[in-house]
Amino acid sequence: MVAPGELTEAEAGTWRALRATSGTPANPFMEPEFTAAVGEVRRGARIAVVRDGRSGEPVGFFPYEKGPLGRGRAIGFGVSDCQGGVFRPGLGLSARELLKSCALSAWEFDNLEAGQGLFVPAAAEELESPVIDVGEGYEAYEAALRVRSPKFFRTTTAKERRLARQAGEVRFVFDERDPAALRTLMEWKSAQYRRTGRRDRFAKEWISTLVRRLAATRTPACSGVLSVLYVADRPVAAHFGLRSRTVLSCWFPAYEPEFAKYSPGLILHLRMAEAAAGAGIALLDLGRGAAEYKDALKTGGLRVYEGAAVRPGARAALHRLSREPSRRAHSFVRNRPALARYAQRTLNRVGGLRDR
């Protein structure tokens, strides 16, 4: 068991090699760079390094956060969009053995990657993470979008032309390095959270610090990417996410409400898809969670899982009692569209009262 900062470069190289041969999309949240960044802002961050009993060589890595009473969570829980361990195939390790070695009574996840054989059997729910596949180029994606959602595409591109006529030249930067643009995005996102009655993630210092650290990260497997849509050199929409060579994991999108009638967020996502395809990225992972813009843009979806792996015992029972009722309540609402819409309207009213 090591802190993320104690992982050697050789071990990190083995981690990357195992991921490269896993056959799963190269999601940057599953790379050692993301775990290292979380380790700089979360005291409970740990990595279990699994070694071959004969050679002593590392054959697996399990990043996690450890809390009171042995309660464990996925690394970066609450903001990480892809979770799990990185293991050599056919390792013959059980989840119970792994948790015992880590002195964990439970390990909770909310975006478990498909194919995580140790933990998928413990999942309580299977969910979709919508994706945009641009592996055949943006032109192929756009052609399919015109056929699948002709009204959506026509309306969005018309709004972009109207935005240019009425507000000024439209300019897009795929990988913006200006720290001021990142601060603007975080301010927009905080306001959006409050406006919709949700918990402001950026009010938590560890999350805002993590995002700033990742914005400065530049490695082939995990790099921060800030994309900005400008009008007359004024930012009107922005997105911050993480990319590998072939996957852009979409994370924090937001826009200036003053320009809402032009749908700048949708314009931004189409520009992002085009730029990503040009940069060799094959997949944009929009992240789990229902949203109309995701339904309009997606070409398919990946499976992710929510739940917890637990070891039998009093602490595991305590975990179930403290977490499972809340998780089930959220799932009940999420899986009933009419109830989910009512809940969102209620949150919006709460957000409106909060801003008065």
Automatic annotation (TrEMBL):
Name used for this protein in its record: GNAT family N-acetyltransferase
**Keyword vocabulary terms for this entry:** Transferase
Q: Does the keyword Transferase belong to this entry?
A: yes
**MF annotations from Gene Ontology:** transferase activity
- The answer to whether UniProt assigns keyword Transferase to this entry is yes
What is the species of this protein?
Streptomyces corynorhini
Q: What InterPro entries does the record tag this protein with?
A: Acyl_CoA_acyltransferase, BioF2-like_GNAT_dom
| Residue ranges occupied by any BioF2-like acetyltransferase domain in the UniProt entry | 153-294
